[in-house]
Write a structure and sequence with these properties.
Layout: H1 2-11, H2 24-56, H3 63-70, H4 75-81, H5 86-116, H6 121-127, H7 135-145, H8 154-160, E1 165-170, E2 173-179, H9 186-193, H10 195-201, H11 203-216, H12 218-239, H13 248-273
Antiparallel strand pairs: 1-2
Helix pairs in contact: 2-5, 2-7, 3-4, 5-13, 6-7, 7-9, 10-11, 11-12
């Protein structure tokens, strides 16, 4: 490194490679999304613990009953009706209270992410023309990618996001392995969590996923769909055009809801500062 600096300074013939530095806005969003992922992990831990305690007591709940137990509105009342041991009741109660507290913090964090990401409002409104993509998902993609113009090709962006398989070559033969996880993973994680909503919401993506799944299996088809989504969002941002199959009525409703949330954030901040 020192030699390269000296040669570059003296001769100007050997320049050091430039490293991309995200903008202050991108760095702030990445910090918030890192905390968002931490809260999601905690939520899964509390839910799994409650499920394990119920299973230990031989209790199997339906999906609706489970959702009621985990909700702050019905949880305590439903817990009183369950036939569990005293220690199990204490354990479930503590985990439910912790769960509700984390869920409340998560809602506050989501509002903060939307507030910090308001300068990207035009890009967010462009991306949510895709059915199944929310403002939170759009901001995650924008925070992960940063400046979309720095990627000359789609493969470069997908490699940066950890969406392309590792390649191994020996002689005339080459093998493709699992995706490279030593990369940015926010977009991959967020889209994986919302993939069911995306496929259920769009016949276009559902047909693509089902066709790919029949040939490559569920795991590879999920990554393939995420790659396709990211490619579409990249092209939309570069061209400034909405999604080809935009449902105008749904998009208008999403746009108004997004605007209401931003207005609520502004009002809350003004009230706190008054």
């Amino acid at each position: 490194m020192a030699k390269a600096l000296w040669v570059s300074a003296v001769t100007g013939e050997f320049g050091l490679p430039l490293v991309y530095k995200p903008s202050a806005l991108t760095r702030e969003l990445r910090k918030l999304y890192a905390q968002y992922q931490v809260l999601n992990k905690q939520i899964r831990v509390y839910k799994n613990t409650v499920q394990a305690v119920l299973a230990d007591n031989g209790i199997v709940l339906s999906r609706v009953e489970k959702n009621h137990l985990l909700s702050e509105k019905y949880g305590k009342q439903m817990l009183e009706e369950l036939d569990v041991s005293e220690a199990s009741r204490i354990s479930i109660t503590m985990n439910l209270e912790l769960l509700w507290n984390v869920l409340e913090k998560k809602e506050e964090l989501v509002m903060e992410i939307l507030r910090i990401g308001e300068p990207l409002k035009d890009q967010v409104e462009l991306l949510i023309t895709i059915r199944g993509i929310t403002p939170l998902t759009a901001l995650a993609f924008l925070a992960d990618v940063g400046d979309i113009h720095r990627f000359k090709t789609l493969r470069q962006m997908n490699s940066y996001l950890g969406l392309v398989p590792r390649l191994r070559a020996s002689g005339d033969k080459s093998w493709s392995g699992h995706i490279n996880r030593a990369s940015r993973k926010l977009t991959r994680t967020i889209l994986t969590q919302s993939l069911i909503q995306v496929t259920d919401a769009s016949l276009y993506f559902r047909n693509y996923y089902d066709e790919m799944k029949s040939r490559r299996g569920a795991g590879r088809s999920r990554i393939a769909l995420i790659r396709k989504l990211c490619g579409i969002m990249r092209r939309m941002l570069l061209e400034g055009k909405p999604f080809k199959y935009t449902e105008v009525t749904l998009y208008t409703r999403k746009q108004k809801q997004y605007e209401r949330m931003l207005n609520q954030i502004r009002e809350d901040r003004e009230r706190k500062s008054a």
